[in-house]
Structures are given as structure tokens and as C-alpha cells.
Specification:
single chain; mainly beta; Lipocalin; 6-stranded antiparallel beta sheet; 4-stranded antiparallel beta sheet; 2 helices
Amino acid sequence: MKRKLLASLVGMALITGSSAFAAGVTDAMIEKDAQSSGDVLTWGMGQQGQRYTPLSQINKGNVGKLVPAWSFSFGGEKQRGQESQPLVHNGKMFVTGSYSRIYALDAKSGKKLWKYEHRLPEGIMPCCDVINRGAALFDNLVIFATLDAQLVALDQNTGDVVWKEKIDDYAAGYSASAAPLIAKGLLLTGVSGGEFGVIGRVEARDPKTGKMVWMRPVVEGHMGYKYEGGKASNDLARRHL
């Protein structure tokens, strides 16, 4: 009887663990990222961007004993600058590289699981080299911005494109390299290109579809918009979010 009960409990634990392991990233998980010791779900390790972990096994007394477990090269002529903060979830590490590339690696071994390389057009005008500063995780997606001012959402397990949305015209000087942020179910991004005369702005999108929810310029005198049913209204010009 005891053996059967033990077997049943173990089976239930495996099923529960497997279900939890496969769960997507939620708002609640992101909000508690700073307190979580099992993953890194957002840029800055939490919405406050404090980059602090409660882990205590590594401390000032033993940090000098750390040695490399594995290494990974971003490859050839496209190494350039590397400014991305890796994200870790379900045993996978997601890290972006220069020239709008993103990789999924096995966090324990460093083995490459998949790679997505965005096809960049001629004539892009990146303001600060061809770097990328990181991605965002939400549900089963990993989302990052590209040098030709687009947003791309990929399936975390396969690297397949789930959605892709244009931010603005790269030929007019727009680009994007910052890591998107998730807050209260919205994907928050900005634009680069102030050196070329573009108007800076903050955008909020539905992270599951990429569709715009609202947009607000950060330069006085320019109008913001709220999007409902695919149509824009200038409601944001009259109030602050």
C-alpha cells in the first residue's frame, strides 16, 4: 500500500513539475523576477532594473574560485559589439547578438538550440554601432527589436517567427536596439535615431500579436495616439498614461 501511495505521489509530482516546466512566462512571474532564483525573465532582472539576485551560494568569499563551464562564440566577422543581457527560462538561455541576431542556448552546456538572423536591408542607419541590447520573454515568445526598426517575436522552443511588426521607416533614420520591456501585459519599446532627426517615442503593444495599443512621442508638441479596433485616436494627446 505504501509503495503504491509513494508511486502515485511521485507520478503526480512529475506531472505537476512537467506542467509547470512547460508554462509560459506571465506578468506575475515577471513582477517577481527579482525574487526568483531559478531564472532571469527580464532585462535588469526585475521591473526595477536593479540587477540583484537573492542567491547566496556565490559570495565575496568564494567568487574568486569560479571557473568557466562553457563558452559560446557569436561568430566570425559579425562579432562586433556585444551588449545583450541574456535571459534564462526553462533551461534555455536567450541572448541577442550584433546585426539583429538572437540565439537560444542550453543553459547547462552552452549548446546552440536555434538561431534567428534577421535579414537586414541596405541603407540602415544605426546610431550606436550594430549592437542589440537584449530581448523580452512573454508567454511562449521571445521578442526583440532589429536595426531596420522592426519587432520580431519567436517561439521560444523552435525559433519560428510568430509575428513581425514594422516600427517605422529605417530609410528615414529609424532603428531599434534596446531590449523591450513587459509591464502589465504590454510590450513597451522605444526608437533610436535622434541623431538623424527622428522623433523619439514610446510604444505599447500586445505582446502576443504585436498590434499597437498606444503611442506617445517624447518631444513636446507631437501628438500621441491610442489604438482601438485597429483605428487611432488622439486621446493620448489630452491625457497622460
